[in-house]
Structures are given as C-alpha cells and as structure tokens.
Design goal:
The protein is α+β, with helices and mostly antiparallel strands and about 650 residues long. The protein has 16 helices and 23 strands. Strand 22 and strand 23 form a beta hairpin. Helix 1 packs parallel to helix 6, helix 2 packs antiparallel against helix 6 and helix 7 packs antiparallel against helix 10.
Length: about 650
C-alpha cells in the first residue's frame, strides 16, 4: 500500500515537471516565433508607421495587446514623444494632450522610462500610485497595465506599453517575458527600418535629382541641336524661300509650328512685312503700316507674348489691339505665341506660331524654347537679308582668293619640283645621270652599318678605271669622250642587279656597290662580264677605238670600320690591276694570294736591254746620289720585263718589278 502511494507521488512530480517543461517550450517557441516575425517585418516594411502595427499584431497572438502604444525620447527637445497609439476605449486625443501638457513624464510611462525597469500594475495599484503622487493617470482606468523600457546602446530610449480592460485577462510571467524580449529587439528593428527608409529616401531624392539632370541634359541637347542647325543654316547660300523654310523646320522640330510666320519691322518706313508665312487659313500676309496688331503688340513690349482667344478679346476691348481685316472671315487663333527678334538691342521683327481650333495650347516651356530659337536666329536672318551688292562683292573677293590660292598652290608644286631636282643634281652625275661620289659614299656607309649588325649577307665595292680613255678624247675629241662615258654607264647598268648601285667617281672612274652577296665569286662574275663588255670597240663617225677596263674589288670583312678603308682598298686593287696589264681584275690585298715580289729569269740577253737614265734623287744622307736605270726586255713568252737597277756610291738597293 505504501509502495503504491510512493509511485503515485513520483508520477505526479514527473507530470508536474513535464508540464513545466512543456510550458517553457511553449514560451520559448512563442518567443522564437515572435522574434522571427519581428525580423521579417523589419526586413519587409518600408517605413516606421507600418512597423508599429506589425509589432502589435505579433504580440497580440500571445498576450492581451489590443491596447498598445510606443513612446520614444526626443533628444532634440528633451521630452518623450508618442510615436504609436491604439486603444479600444480612449481616442488618440488623450495621449496627444498628455504629451502637449508634459504629463507623459509624470505618467506610468514616465516612471518606466526613469527607472529603466519593467512595471506591471493592476487597477488598485494604479489608483494607489496616483493617491501617493507617484504618477498621474489619464483616460479610462484599466484593469492591468504593463510597460517595459526600450534599450539602445546601454541606455533607455523609450517605453513600450500595453493595457487590458478585462479583469479576466491579466499578464502572466511568460507574457511579460515575451513583451520584454520584443521590446529588447525593438530598437534593432527600428534602426533597420530607419536605415532602409533613409536609403529609400536617398534613392528617391537621387532619382529625382537624376531626373532633373536628365531633363536639363535633354534640354541642353535640344538647344545644342538647334544651335548646330542654325550654324549650318548660316553657312549655306539659299534663296529667301528656302532659307525661311529651313528656319520653319528648325522651329517645328522642337514645338508645334504648323502655322508660322516671320514679320520684319522697318523702323525708317514704319512698315511691317512678312517675307515668310505658312497659315492653314490661307490668309494673305501683305505689307502694312505699323498699327495695333498682335505682331505690333510684341514689338512694343519687346518680350514674348502668349495669347488665347480670351486675352485677344480683352486686349481689343482695352484698345491695345486691333484685329486686322484678315480675321473678318477667319476664326481667331485659339493659341498664339510671338517672340521678338533682336539685332543690336533693337527689335527688328517677330517670329510667331499659332494654333487654331484648340489643336494645341502653348505652354511656358514652349515660350522658353521659342525665345531661345529667336535669340539664335535673329543674326542669321539679318545676315541673310543683307544687301545683295555686299554679297556679290564677297563672291567676287572669294573668287579672287580662290585664284590666288590656285596660283600659290602651283608655286608650291613648282618649288617642290625644283627642290627635288636640286636634290637629284646634288647626288647625281650631270653627264651620265648616275649616282655621284656623295650619294655612293652615303649608301656605302648605310650598307657597312647594316653589315655590322647582320653579317649574313656580304657586300663588295668594285672600282673601275677605263682603259684608253685619253686616246678617245685626244683622237675623237671631248664630245666623243662624253658619249663614250654615257654609253659605258648604260652598258655597266645592264651588268648589275636592281639592288646594286652604280656611280661615277669622276673622269673615267666608276664604282659599283654590290649587296646581298651569297658568295664572293659573284662580284668577280660581274667584273668578268664588264671586262668582256668593254673589249668591244667604241665607234663614232666610222672611227673605232678599242677600250677596256681595269677593275679592283674590295670585299666586306669585319676589319672595316669606315667607308674610306673600303674605297681605299678597292682603289689600290684597281691600280694593281692597271699595273698588271689592262683589262684585268684584282682583289684587295686582304684577299690576294702571296706571290714572289722578285721574278728573275734564268737567262737574260743583255744585248736586248736598253737603259734610260731617270731623275736624280737625293737620299738626304752624306749627300749620296742614286741613279735609276730602267731597262726593258721582251722574253720568249712575249712578256715584257721592266728592270730597275739602282747604283749608288755608298748604299746598294735593288728592286725588280714585272708587268704582264
């Protein structure tokens, strides 16, 4: 029996503990749900006025919250301000009156704000507080009142309160805890909404600002287009009709200008004329004396005028306007706008647009735009309507300038031609037309510098001296000699390649720059062709003289550092060729095979020698005197040997040389 009683007690404790856990779980679930809903509302609502009722709705699902208000402290004025209030009995006028009279500071709300602690009062406690002077109560007495402080950054910034008029709806601990939790996260939610509201406000302001900027930019672009069109119009040569039609098109692109006329005022004659008019009523715009029409009204006022039919009739009644005869049988325009045309601060006319039958009503934006057009177009109209005689003089002057420009252009072309000819003459031989020494050396220097950078292709300089040229000059005359040089230059040109350079150094000396050589024998092959070519006799006036050529060749090598070295070696090789016999080819010393400088035949018939005494040479030593004897003899092979024998009193030196 005792065991059964003990088991029953244990089960009751378990049940009680389980109920407690269930209640805690329900409270935790309610709190979690409320916080999730609060976070969702803080992320969703766009302004604070929508956040407060959302918070009330969240709380109302878990505790009596049909009567709910929020009070926040305003640091600018140092007072509590009511930001949200809902009550099922009292109207909004009570808390507003309490705020205006400063009673919020002395109310239950002020008590919670000052203490920074949650306060729960029933009806009796509220009455007791009022009796003791702790606070003052306004409005209908409630059964239960709950107020919790709102914290932000460690300080109290306001109070969130709810009250119940039902005696059977008190606030339990879980409801108070939920209310405190929501109040704790309230400031965070408010800050999020404020930031989003601020951002939305900034976006809206920026959008409005951009819209205004876009509108200004569009207006600027429109004005730029007008200026561009007017500028183009000012440069064109048009007759009056075409010119004013272009003006009409410019205006019509920006505003309603179905009916447009341009009136000009002649101050000296006091006359109004219309050089251009388009009117759907087919009114004839004849010149007239200055009177009291709408056009004259604009000229007198000197500013843009906008008329509808009522204003026209009012001005007629005042005597300021008289309708011309053209309106007797035609309807008045329902909207009329006239803009003065100025030139040198004087009104010279009017540009007017009009609409009939309420087809269009001109606005302030139209006034601004048409005024802008008129400002830009006035000078153009004056320029176009200038005196024809002045225009003719301008045309004549333009024609003169064109002729002067043509003459100047011809002079420039002639000068360029002369400069080209001078350059050619400075770098070419006058007789043969070949490159001269200056041009050849310049090209040789470029080739040498290029070879230093890239030695994959060699080059060579060929020095050519013509044989028997003196005989041609002496026998046939210098005129024939010149022809011989020209003919030789043409013949040499056929022996070389396109990229080679042939030049005349002077007299009967020619040089050739051979480039892009793969093998050294290429230059020798070209030289052999020239030798063969020069073996042909030169004939003029039925007289023929056999000429020839002696050629020296200098090949490129790494030892060369200047053009002078190359030309010197080629020249030396050419002289060696002349010494060796006419019509021969010699390479520069860099490429010659070593040979004996002394050739002595085994047998020499002394009877065949003939001697000729040469000049006496002072050796500047002990007054020694040397005498040269130059014997010559012919060998059986046909070769001629020149032998120099030097006899001297104190020094002996013998040198022999042979010419083939």
């Amino acid at each position: 029996m005792e065991d059964a009683h003990a088991d029953s007690g244990s089960q009751q404790r378990k049940i009680k503990r389980l109920k407690s856990l269930v209640k805690k779980y329900q409270t935790s679930l309610q709190t979690q749900t409320a916080l999730l809903q609060l976070s969702e509302q803080a992320s969703k609502v766009s302004e604070l006025t929508l956040l407060y009722p959302a918070i009330q709705q969240i709380l109302e699902s878990s505790l009596p919250c049909r009567n709910f208000y929020v009070v926040l402290f305003n640091p600018d004025i140092g007072e509590l301000e009511l930001t949200y209030f809902v009550d099922e009995i009292d109207g909004i006028h009570l808390p507003i009156q309490a705020q205006q009279t400063g009673m919020l500071d002395n109310s239950l709300t002020g008590l919670v704000f000052k203490t920074g602690k949650t306060k729960l009062f029933n009806k009796e406690q509220i009455a007791d507080c009022e009796i003791k002077g702790v606070c003052r109560v306004m409005g209908t007495p409630c059964e239960y009142w709950l107020g919790v402080p709102i914290h932000h950054d460690g300080r109290v910034i306001g109070v969130m309160a709810t009250q119940s008029y039902n005696v059977n709806q008190p606030f339990d601990d879980s409801q108070i805890a939920l209310f405190e939790t929501v109040a704790f996260y309230f400031s965070t939610a408010v800050e999020r909404v404020k930031k989003r509201q601020y951002m939305a406000q900034q976006v809206a302001e920026r959008t409005e600002q951009l819209s205004r900027e876009i509108a200004r930019n569009q207006d600027t672009i429109r004005k730029q287009n007008i200026l561009y069109a007017i500028s183009k119009l000012a440069t064109k040569s048009l007759n009056n009709q075409d010119f004013f039609e272009r003006v009409h098109n410019i205006v019509n692109e920006e505003v309603f200008a179905k009916n447009l006329f341009i009136a000009l005022y002649d101050h000296s004659e006091n006359m109004i004329s219309c050089p251009y008019a388009v009117d759907e009523m087919s009114v004839d715009y004849q010149p007239r004396t200055f009177s009291k029409g709408l056009t004259e009204f604009v000229i007198r006022s000197g500013k843009t005028e906008l008329f509808d039919q009522n204003r026209v009739l009012n001005e007629v009644a005042k005597g300021h306007v008289e309708l011309p005869a053209k309106f007797n049988n035609s309807p008045l325009p329902t909207s009329w706008i006239g803009v003065p045309l100025y030139h040198r601060q004087q009104v010279i006319g009017v540009l007017a647009c009009q609409a009939f039958n309420n087809e269009y009503s001109y606005k302030q934006s139209d006034i601004e735009l048409i005024s802008f057009v008129s400002e830009q177009i006035s000078n153009v109209i004056v320029k176009h309507l200038a005196d024809n005689q002045l225009e003719q003089r301008v045309k004549e002057k333009t024609a003169e300038l064109q002729q002067a420009n043509i003459h100047l252009q011809l002079q420039i072309e002639e000068r360029k031609k002369i400069e080209r000819q001078l350059f050619h003459d400075a770098h070419h031989d006058n007789l043969t037309g070949l490159a001269n020494r200056s041009l050849f050396i310049s090209q040789l220097d470029k080739t040498l510098q290029r070879h230093k950078r890239d030695k994959s292709h060699g080059f060579a300089v060929m020095f050519i001296d013509l044989d028997n040229f003196k005989d041609i000059n002496d026998t046939l005359g210098h005129h024939a000699g010149d022809k011989f040089l020209k003919s030789t230059a043409n013949e040499f040109s056929t022996c070389i390649r396109e990229h080679d350079l042939l030049a005349r150094f002077g007299g009967d000396e020619f040089v050739i720059l051979l480039t892009h050589l793969q093998h050294k024998d290429e230059a020798e092959l070209i030289a052999k062709r020239i030798i063969k070519l020069m073996n042909k006799p030169f004939c003029i006036n039925e007289l023929c003289i056999k000429s020839g050529a002696s050629i020296g060749i200098a090949y490129s090598n790494k030892a060369y550092t200047s053009t002078d070295q190359i030309i010197r070696d080629a020249d030396s090789a050419m002289y060696q060729a002349k010494k060796s016999g006419k019509g021969t080819i010699e390479l520069s010393a860099e490429h010659l095979e070593p040979r004996s400088s002394l050739i002595c035949p085994t047998e020499i018939n002394a009877g065949q020698l003939s001697f000729a005494k040469s000049n006496v040479i002072d050796l500047h030593k002990d007054h020694s005197v040397a005498t040269f004897y130059n014997p010559q003899l012919t060998l059986e092979s046909g070769a001629t040997i020149a032998l120099a024998h030097l006899l001297q009193e104190q020094h002996a030196a013998i040198d022999y040389w042979i010419t083939y």
